[in-house]
Amino acid sequence: MPVYKLAGGERRTVPTGPAHDTLTVTNSAEAGQAHYRLSVDAPNARPHALGPGYTDSYDVTAFPSIDVHNTGTLALTVATTS
């Protein structure tokens, strides 16, 4: 399970696809909203907000990689699993 830490403002391309079919984004802060965008939401690249201690999960089997952009100031943890 590859795990990536994204600081505020950081952007990372995460390999996904058949080998890693689930992408999770976690806000492990004790307070505050984390904000991020995913390239698969293009062309609108809608923002996501994630409360403290919460995780969002996405089925990413159909995508070879996903660009995750931490648009807020809180750190996020991004992981892929199969």
Beta-strand portion reads over 45%
Q: Strand order, biggest sheet?
A: 1-8-3-6
- Helix content percent band: under 10%
Mean pLDDT: 89
Radius of gyration, in Å, reads 12 Å
Number of strands: 8
Rough shape? globular
Between the first and last Cα atoms, what is the distance in angstroms?
8 Å
Main β-sheet description: 4 strands, antiparallel
Question: How do the strands and helices of this protein lay out in sequence?
Answer:
Layout: E1 3-6, E2 11-15, E3 22-26, E4 34-38, E5 48-50, E6 55-59, E7 65-70, E8 76-81
Antiparallel strand pairs: 1-8, 2-7, 3-6, 3-8, 4-5, 4-7
Describe this structure in words.
With 82 residues, the chain is mainly beta. The strands form 2 sheets. The chain has a 4-stranded antiparallel sheet with strand order 1-8-3-6, with no helix packed on it. Strands 2-7-4-5 form a 4-stranded antiparallel sheet, with no helix packed on it. The model has no long low-confidence stretch (mean pLDDT 89).
